[in-house]
Design brief:
single chain, mainly alpha, 48% helix
């Protein structure tokens, strides 16, 4: 366990209780966000790589003119 000031997420991760309820709420949201990001990264890494065709041609749309 480290000494000195701790961020709320680090304090909770090390088993310490936050000083204020607001810190606990912030720490919970930070942890949830970190877990969502990790899950998203794992999902991206587990997908097979898609091969894209280099034969893509741009589509041009002509402007209509009235006579």
């Amino acid at each position: 366990m480290s000494c000195g000031q701790e961020s709320a997420p680090d304090a909770i991760a090390e088993g310490m209780l936050p000083l204020l309820p607001a810190q606990a709420e912030v720490a919970r949201r930070v942890r949830e966000n970190e877990l969502r990001q990790l899950a998203f990264q794992r999902e991206l890494l587990s997908r097979p790589e898609k091969k894209h065709s280099n034969n893509v041609k741009p589509i041009f749309i002509a402007n209509k003119t009235t006579c």
